[in-house]
Amino acid sequence: MTVKPISRLGAAFAFAVLLSACDMGVVVYEPGVYKGDPDPIASQQAAAERSDALADRAGSAFADR
Amino acid sequence: MARMKFLCDVERCIECHACVTACKNEHEVPWGVNRRRVIVMDDGQPGEKAISVACMHCSDAPCAAVCPVDCFYQTADGIVLHDKDLCIGCGYCFYACPFGAPQYPQQTAFGVRGKMDKCTFCAGGPEEPHSEAELTKYGTNRIAEGKLPLCAEMCATKALLAGDGDVIANIYRKRVMRRGGRPQSWGWQAAYGQNV
Fold first, then answer.
1. Which of B133, B146, B158 is opposite residue A62, by nearest beta carbon?
2. Domain enclosing residue B66, as ranges
3. ipTM for the assembly
4. What sign results for the dihedral spanned by CA atoms B103, B29, B118, B9?
5. Cβ–Cβ < 8 Å for A43, B2
6. What are the residues whose beta carbons fall under 8 Å from the beta carbon of B45, sequence distance 6 or more?
7. Which residue from B75, B85, B164 is facing A43, i.e. has the nearest CB?
8. A50 vs B contacts (CB less than 8 Å)
9. Which of A29, A63, B62, B102 could pair with B96 in a Cys bridge, judged by C-beta atoms 3.0 to 4.6 Å apart?
């Protein structure tokens, strides 16, 4: 079986792409971890959900006994 | 919507540095970096005052305004956080901050100071809450657990208040009314543009 030059070129290109991932400047994130901009709606919902709990905690934590 | 703020009652602070120790221990802050410090004014003089200072999570944060890589962001409850993956350690935020909050692991020149570190209001960072990455880069995320910053929660004299601005302002206002004197909400004018 003969290997065409175009296949060798393709293999070399793929190898170069894979090799570029070995650069120290590449940040590898754990799979499943969202790295985009924070979702403002989700952030507001979370803040609203915990605001009452935090207010209660502040009332009990900083009250003079 | 709650707006998270810090308030130090200078009449109560006894300069015990427990808030500093608690913060360093909770977040495993590296050697040489203090996210919170206690400043003493008129040390040894009559009327000496001590104030516990950290990032005040300003409404219009100057650190965010000068950051060349835009690594700062504000959560819905007003906590100013930053992304250490984007930080280039330029130090502009350190010069802009009126409270000296941004800290660097190394006291060296541009680019080799390391990533900036500052108080997160115990709210972690842009990583997944309670993940290993968040813990190592930013420390624990107590806010997501419904808890307030540890420095304030364990303050023995309850001098350091943290939480919703309206709630802690009411607590402080009642104290001032009970004991007399005038309110001294140190840093609030610079950070939030208002007084108690």
1. B158
2. 4-192
3. 0.81
4. negative
5. no
6. none
7. B75
8. 143-144, 146
9. B62
Tens of each residue's pLDDT in chain B, 196 residues: 789 999 999 999 999 999 999 999 999 998 889 999 999 999 999 989 999 999 999 999 999 999 999 999 999 999 999 999 999 999 999 999 999 999 999 877 776 888 999 999 999 998 888 889 899 999 999 999 999 999 999 999 999 999 999 999 999 999 999 999 888 888 999 999 877 6
Identify the CATH number of the domain in which residue B96 sits. 3.30.70.20
Q: How many domains does chain B have?
A: 1
Task: Please indicate whether, in this complex, the C-beta atoms of B171 and A63 are within 8 angstroms of each other.
Answer: yes
Identify from B167, B168, B177, B179 which residue to disrupt to test chain A contact, counting A C-beta atoms within 10 A and taking the largest count.
Answer: B167
Dihedral sign, Cα of residue A20, residue A26, residue A32, residue A36: negative
